[in-house]
Amino acid sequence: MNVLLKFYHRLGSPREFYEISGSLIPWFGTISLILILTGSYLGLVVAPADYQQGESYRIIYVHVPSAWLSMLIYTVLAVSAMIGLIWRMKMAYVVMICSAAPGAWFTLVALITGSLWGKPMWGTWWQWDARLTSELLLLFLYIGIIALYNSFYERHLAEKSAAILAVVGVINLPIIHYSVEWWNTLHQGSTVIRSDGPSMDVRMLWPLLIMAVGFNFYYGLILMLRARNQVLIQEARNSWVAELVVNKGQAS
Amino acid sequence: MSRSNKNSHADGSLLATLGRLFLRDCKHHLRKQSDILNPICFFVIICSLFPLGLSADRELLNTIGGGIIWVSVLLSLMMGLNQLFRDDYEAGVLEQFLFTHTSLTQVVLAKIAAYWCLSALPMIILSPIVGTAYHLTGDQIWVLVIGLALGSPTLALLGSIGSALTLNLKNGGVLLAILILPLFAPVLIFGAGMVNAIHIGLPVNAQLSVLGALMFGSLSLAPFATSFALKNSLDY
Amino acid sequence: MTPKQKSRMRLVLLVLAGLGITSLLALNAFRSNLMYFLTPAEMVAGDYPEQGMYRLGGMVVEGSINRLENGITVEFDLTDYEQTITVRYTGILPDLFREGQGIVAHGRIENQLFTAEEVLAKHDESYMAPEVAEAMKNVDMSKAIPASATKIPAGTTL
């Protein structure tokens, strides 16, 4: 526990974060690349076709991981916003704002792939059912957070305002997840996360899980890359950044 | 004012303070009549533009009427929200409230209540007339009015959060729309859905419950979020 | 308690009461179905008027698909295993449309005939390889219970 706490405190300092993340980035990059390549191969080549949808179902290997990630990233964003508001931790706000853009992108990918999938299967690009609409609202929420953050000159105001909005928006998450259970939607129910176990052929399920983990590592990678830039911008006046820049300059 | 608010924590004066703040805001709005009249005129005008732009087809107007009236209310209320705290902010009154330890939550509640009474209520009262122009049936008009009565406090409460967040921004208007219109979506979906559902004879209990739940939920939480956002905007 | 604590206490109680009412109302809402579509049984029971558009959801009855002479108009029966309604649709059907498939049709009802303007196929949440699905079907056959004759348990998405 003590070790964890110490690690948490170390990550809380921008400088330590910069150093730790620097050593983690190659790992995250390699792992996500391997997992996504393996997942794609298993999903697109090895996994059997579906008994109803034939080959078209394979878009699931992009759609579902993105959709999961769109919600996971919002959770990360909202939790770090809470941490920032309560404990005024600098790095929490960095994580929050650096998660917003990737979150928006993954939401958009989920919406677009869903749309591409919906046209041949359901017969429509878009329906205003609860699942689709709430996912669209999630995209708007991400955009709102980014827009609000960017419209302030003073960073501490921007951070806190965006954090408040992020916390208010949490209400959307349970609505997205349970929309398919609470309402008679066109979108089918959950396949993987359900009380009686996944209702999917194991050969189809594994690639999906591998892809999902791969996507998560990819998000981690993007988050760290963005956060490092953000840290450098925010700490530009501190001596360690100056040293870093000077050392880099001499090395090259 | 500051002296009377100083002992606002004394027994029983919670409501009294709220009442005084409410009356103060009402007076303020009534003095600046354009604040109230503009959104209401805006509401009536957009509602009358749709039939001109589409067609006066009776069945079409009946189908879209509920949705259009709801969207118009949403937009008109949002226009006024931009001004909700601005006058007091620019006059430094909000800071005075902070210095005199008046609970900002009360200030927020009173402001929202005054805003609702002077902006939303007139629109609700006008909505049956507009509804008739859209050939809504009697049932539909009832459901529309009840829905607006339940939904518009939620809109004002949620909107106040956005209004507080964008308080010290110069170009807050468009941003406010981006922030709060998505939050308004559930109210719109259930409110307008109800008007259509009653027409084809479906029960509307579920939608009524959702609108009620949204109202009580935002009533219990939004004032705190708004006052927190206000403090942030005041950099307090 | 100091007056300040007292008023804070009162505030907390008020907020809790508000949240309580919220959850009660929300529970009430979720008990009644917030429908994206109606089922044939609901439609028959509700005796719905002929004006207005509905969404009707159900299973396509085996062997009921009937293509009319003009070639693009299709008639089929839609069932929830309690009531059956005949649907007529002119246009392109989605890939997944077939007998025994859950679909959602959007249209209006006239003289017991539901004229759809849009037909959407709903797919279930299970994914299987074709040979597995075939095998499972055979198991069902051996038990002599036609898969389509079993009543759908409540809560299953069609």
Concise account of the structure shown:
By secondary structure, chain B is an all-alpha fold. Chain B is built from 10 helices and no strands. Chain C has 158 residues and is of the alpha+beta class.
What is the element string of chain A, with H for helices and E for strands? HHHHHHHHH
Structural class of chain A, please? mainly alpha
Overall pLDDT level of chain C: 74
Query: Would you tell me the overall average pLDDT of chain A?
Result: 86
Provide the CATH topology of the largest domain in chain C: OB fold (Dihydrolipoamide Acetyltransferase, E2P)
Regarding CATH, which class of the largest domain in chain C?
Mainly Beta
SS field, number of helical segments of chain A? 9
Q: How many angstroms does the end-to-end distance of chain A come to? A: 41 Å
CATH superfamily of the largest domain in chain C: Nucleic acid-binding proteins
Percent helix of chain A, as a range, is over 70%
The class by helix and strand makeup of chain C works out as alpha+beta
Summarize the biggest pleated sheet of chain A.
none
| Proportion of residues in helical segments of chain C | 25-40%
| Structural domains of chain A: how many | 1
Number of strands of chain A: 0
How far from one another are the termini of chain C?
58 Å
Q: What percent strand of chain C?
A: 25-35%
Tell me the greatest interface.
A-C, 34 and 34 residues
Number of domains of chain C: 2
Basic shape of chain C: elongated
Q: Which labels suit this protein?
A:
heterotrimer; A: 252 residues; mainly alpha; B: mainly alpha; 10 helices; disordered N terminus
General description of the model:
The complex is a heterotrimer of chains A (252), B (236) and C (158). With 252 residues, chain A is mainly α. Chain A is built from nine helices and no strands. Chain A has one domain. In chain A, helix 2 runs antiparallel to helix 8, helix 4 runs antiparallel to helix 8 and helix 5 packs antiparallel against helix 7. With 236 residues, chain B is mostly helical. With 158 residues, chain C is α+β, with helices and mostly antiparallel strands. Chain C folds into two domains: 32 residues; 85 residues, Nucleic acid-binding proteins (OB fold (Dihydrolipoamide Acetyltransferase, E2P), Beta Barrel). Chain C has a five-stranded mixed barrel. Chains in contact: A-B, A-C, B-C.
